[in-house]
Specification:
The chain contains five helices and nine strands. It has helices at residues 5-18, 20-25, 79-91, 144-148, 182-197, and strands at residues 32-43, 46-54, 66-67, 70-72, 99-108, 114-122, 136-143, 153-160, 163-170. The radius of gyration is 16 Å and the shape is globular. It has one domain: Nucleoside Triphosphate Pyrophosphohydrolase (Alpha-Beta Complex). The strands form two sheets. Strands 1, 2, 3, 4, 5, 6 and 7 form a seven-stranded mixed sheet that branches. A two-stranded antiparallel sheet has the order 8-9. The model has no long low-confidence stretch (mean pLDDT 88).
């Protein structure tokens, strides 16, 4: 399964503009602004997305969770710049050497006051060396077949901030990793839905 980068970019732009009015009306005051990088590549079975598992740190509510490279924006820092800086710091990727495809509508936390912007990049070539820093426990490339497999879609109990919650999630074929849930789940499934519903495959 191959994909047209131009088509991905066009669909992202349409999807983002369709939701832009709602995004502009969202209340960001009092919310932490954060940005993540969704990094794509062509794998053996088609389009793949890069995920990280965060290292375990005390007082980090997302400690150990699956995520995209990213983090908080610094004061005065543009959100896209923040995503690119975090990708360089966390996995050693210079996104200036990739193809920027667009962005997804922002998502806001349901349990913490955070607003996350997601910027999408295409990584040319399939052989890339990632150099995770101390904030990253492991990395994993998941393809669309894995992310859309209904047998991997579950509703399960997750623990966040000492509270147990029932949440929709994906069980990745990533040995020893937790389920994909929360903000990253919402962003990943939003992108996957665009791919599958818009006839993106060629």
């Amino acid at each position: 399964m191959t994909f047209s980068l131009e088509t991905i970019s066009t669909l992202l732009d349409r999807h983002h503009r369709r939701h832009s009015d709602r995004m502009e009306k969202q209340e960001h005051e009092g919310k932490t602004r954060a940005a993540v990088a969704m990094i794509l590549r062509q794998g053996e079975r088609g389009l793949e997305l890069l995920f990280i598992q965060r290292a375990l740190f005390p007082n980090d509510p997302w400690s150990g969770n699956i995520a995209f490279p990213g983090g908080k924006a610094k004061p005065g820092e543009a959100l896209k710049q923040a995503a690119e800086r975090e990708a360089a710091e966390e996995v050693g990727l210079d996104l200036a050497e990739t193809v920027y495809l667009g962005r997804l509508p922002e998502v806001t936390g349901s349990t913490l006051p955070v607003s996350v912007s997601c910027f999408v990049y295409w990584l040319p070539g399939s052989s890339v060396v990632l150099t995770p820093n101390q904030e990253v426990y492991d990395t994993y490339w998941a393809d669309l077949e894995e992310l859309t497999d209904p047998n991997r879609r579950v509703v399960t109990t997750v623990n966040f901030g000492g509270e147990a919650m029932e949440m929709p999630a994906i069980m990745l074929a990533w040995p020893g990793a937790p389920v994909l849930w929360g903000l990253t789940y919402r962003l990943a499934t939003q992108f996957v839905d665009i791919c599958m519903k818009r006839g993106l495959a060629e």
